[in-house]
Amino acid sequence: MEVLVYGVGGVGGYFGGKIAKAGYNVSMIARGEHLKAIQRDGLEIESINGDFKINPKLATDDLQEVPKPDLVILGIKSWQIPQVAQELKSVIKDNTMILPLQNGADNFEKLLKVFPEKNVLAGLCFVVSYIETPGKIKHSAFEPTISFGEIDNRLSKRIKELKALFDASGIKNFNPENIQLEIWKKFLFITTVSGIGGLTRVSIDKIRESDYLYKMMQDTANEIKELANAKNIPITREHVKQVFKTIHSQPAGTTASTQRDIMNGKPSELDNFNGYIVKEAARLGVDAPVNRSIYECLKPMETLARKSLE
Length: 310
What we know:
It catalyses: (R)-pantoate + NADP(+) = 2-dehydropantoate + NADPH + H(+). The chain is α/β, with parallel strands linked by helices. Helix content is about 45%, strand content about 20%.
């Protein structure tokens, strides 16, 4: 199977590295000094589960050099999907599977605006990993897992084939009964902590120590639940309770990646998190005042960060 990993950051680098280590043909799209280091020395993964190093079949920043893939794993940010999808059109075959693993509730919907459903899967992942230095990925916490499925949740032949690939690569994986529910459960957590983290610029433990901010997180989560229910996603109060158990389990100093991007003046996933809630709530007639307040307060900084890309 020909595998293309587009974006070799913490997610794409770790999972792409595991697949390459298992002997699959893996091509990687990377940029800048990170790409140069991979081309020169290979990709190093320092992991709490054991370190390893791989040499991908190809590392490049030019899609035209890449063999037409059977599987594309998207290791980019959610806001990058529309542009990357357009770039991928030149290499996608009739039976290519495209698997988005980034945070966000509507990643597969973005892909469906460019590709037919036969090319698109839904997915998410759990892993704490990042580029430590060019050519090196550090996996520092959590057992890395991938959840994936058909958009209509049927157990298709290609889902079984993909599960076999992940199993052979030593990647813990799940094909849940309802992949949309799993996506929204993670979205509920990450959106609840990310925007408030960007505003306060302190770690999750400091936010939960404040009665006012803790109540703000609860209101944020409840608005997300109400929107999910309006979209026929069966998020329950029990799911919200589980999110707050997760919030309480986060060690001191923990911050979300979107929060770190905001604090560092980088383009972030704000529009795909709190901004998505605001947009969809307005469309469906759902009240979301707390998410809107967070979004509007952070939006000017996001606008400035996006100008750096022009």
